[in-house]
Amino acid sequence: MTRVLLVTSSILADQGQSTQLARHFERLARQRDDIEITHRDVVADDLPHLGLDELSSWQVADAERSEAQRELATRSDERLAELEAHDVLVLAVPLYNLGIPSQLKAWFDRILRAGKSFRYTENGPVGLLEGKRAIVLGARGGQYAGSALDTQTPHLRHMLGLIGINEVETVFAEGLSMGDEHKEAALTTAHAEIEALIARL
């Protein structure tokens, strides 16, 4: 059984193009008996920005945490446990102002955790979640892939690599705001690439 954690991050919910890519992935994946999917919508989760009190709660041993610290630490503990329990991470990501949604960054801030998902060594950080793979489903109004303006893809790869997820595949539907013909062609290509990805899971 392949366990897939599907993370969506569009503020437009089901109307978002990245969410539509995620739904296409999910529909096809659920046709297979050997794939199990968990869906997490980080916009609906509405995690706050990471603050000092929450960060400090991670440094306190479980048995010594106050009730408030336990509640704060749970935000990270539960999301890390969820990620650890899955084999494949699928991120459905819109492009907002050349970056990832702040809601998705808030999620990453809870899973990029020293001593839990990576550790520091003399040779630099080492990821602790090896053996997993990731798929990025990106939706963009313009065309950015491969250009200097695509700061989003390297950011995602670096964050995933930090925790040991170095096998990252990408599917982009680009130019979605550049006319109906361009949009239809981009979505058709992206759907075909998603189907090929699922066949390899």
Automatic annotation (TrEMBL):
<dbReference type="InterPro" id="IPR050104">
    <property type="entry name" value="FMN-dep_NADH:Q_OxRdtase_AzoR1"/>
</dbReference>
<keyword id="KW-0285">Flavoprotein</keyword>
<keyword id="KW-0560">Oxidoreductase</keyword>
<dbReference type="InterPro" id="IPR003680">
    <property type="entry name" value="Flavodoxin_fold"/>
</dbReference>
<keyword id="KW-0520">NAD</keyword>
<comment type="function">
    <text>Also exhibits azoreductase activity. Catalyzes the reductive cleavage of the azo bond in aromatic azo compounds to the corresponding amines.</text>
</comment>
<dbReference type="Pfam" id="PF02525">
    <property type="entry name" value="Flavodoxin_2"/>
</dbReference>
<keyword id="KW-0288">FMN</keyword>
<protein>
    <recommendedName>
        <fullName>FMN dependent NADH:quinone oxidoreductase</fullName>
        <ecNumber>1.6.5.-</ecNumber>
        <ecNumber>1.7.1.17</ecNumber>
    </recommendedName>
</protein>
<comment type="subunit">
    <text>Homodimer.</text>
</comment>
<dbReference type="InterPro" id="IPR023048">
    <property type="entry name" value="NADH:quinone_OxRdtase_FMN_depd"/>
</dbReference>
<feature type="binding site">
    <location>
        <position position="10"/>
    </location>
    <ligand>
        <name>FMN</name>
    </ligand>
</feature>
<dbReference type="InterPro" id="IPR029039">
    <property type="entry name" value="Flavoprotein-like_sf"/>
</dbReference>
<comment type="similarity">
    <text>Belongs to the azoreductase type 1 family.</text>
</comment>
<feature type="domain" description="Flavodoxin-like fold">
    <location>
        <begin position="3"/>
        <end position="196"/>
    </location>
</feature>
<comment type="function">
    <text>Quinone reductase that provides resistance to thiol-specific stress caused by electrophilic quinones.</text>
</comment>
